Amino acid sequence: MRLLLTSLVCVTLALPVVAKPALRDVAEIDDALMAVAIADELRKDCDGISARMLRALSRLEGLKGRARDLGYTKEEVKAYVTSDAEKQRMRAKATAWLAKQGVDPTDSVGFCAFGRDQIKAKTAIGSLLR
After folding, report:
1. Which of 27, 83, 117, 119 could form a disulfide with 126 if both were Cys (CB 3.0 to 4.6 A apart)?
2. Which whole number is the average pLDDT over 47-65?
3. Which pLDDT score, from 0 to 100, does residue 19 have?
């Protein structure tokens, strides 16, 4: 029994430790959070577009749960979503993504038209708005 236990400990210690990537590098989390952030800006900036708040809150809770399923702690998730540096990075990421879609978020008319198109197309962004 002692030999088995010693062997098990040795094998366990020999396994490589795999570090988790930063949450910003987990595309399914980061991209979904970007969609929520863009939807939030659309609801704030555009008359006639409002948020589906329960759906948005549910999506955020789902993302937190998914991050936990991937092995991230509550503290790691909180640090990711409250970090000023991460908020700036997300803003830059969203602006770059919008530019690839041909949208300038500083052009209210175009930005709001984009929001209405997202609602009609029932995209990840549009599903959070009405």
Report:
1. 119
2. 94
3. 83
Across residues 91-110, what is the average pLDDT? Answer: 95
What is the phi/psi pair of residue 129, to 5°? -125, 165
This prediction's pTM: 0.80
| Residue-by-residue DSSP string for 13-32 | HHSPPPPPPPGGG-HHHHHH
Work out the number of other CB atoms within 10 angstroms of the CB of residue 114. Answer: 22
Q: How would you label 57-88 residue by residue, b for 16+ Cβ within 10 Å and e otherwise? A: eebeeebbeebeeeebeeeebeebbeeeebee
CB contact at 8 A, 120 and 112: no
Report the 10 Å Cβ neighbour count for 41: 16
